Amino acid sequence: MQSLKTIQQTNDAIIREALVGQLKTEYSKNPEYRVIPELGLWHGASRIDVAVVNGILHGFEIKSDRDTLNRLPDQREVYNSIFDKVTLVVGAKHFVDAFKIVPEWWGIETAHLNEEGSVFFNTIREPRENPKQDDISIARLLWRSEALELLESIGRADGVRSKTRDVIYTRVAESIEIDVLKKYVRNVLQGPRQDWRSDAQLA
Hints:
Helices cover 37% and strands 22% of the residues. The chain is α/β, with parallel strands linked by helices. A six-stranded mixed sheet has the order 1-2-3-4-5-6, sandwiched between helices.
């Protein structure tokens, strides 16, 4: 028989399900939002547990009681380059150590299980605006075809149509102000895409 301690430990799956449900309820009155589980970043080099597109791009990374924080420093660098805001959702086991790893502008929430096995969240620190993002990393959220379509629309596609996607993303970053690029990317992510994992688009 499992001990009560084991039963009450959180895991990624139950936290993600509860988090997605909470976010959908929170944003339900705003038609222009999208909750995207497991959004691929850097073409599959990384993936964030949940992303919300709602005027900004807000990433939520989950570290349950059954996880370790070993990958968080590398994930931190990726998320810092892309998201307007980031919130780390941790089990009680990682609460203290999380503060030592993530920047002060990240939000922190703890996830707990009540006696009925339902997840509830406590906000420890609200997220603030990312002080510095990387335009090429943001451009990488676009598929190659989407990035080319953007360049075509502003007359900057000449010379890169047959190039690698890295060349295309560099051209995008060079050609468009970062705030304009961020808005375009958000519009794409809120659109009709069916496969959100950017590693599925390797061309």
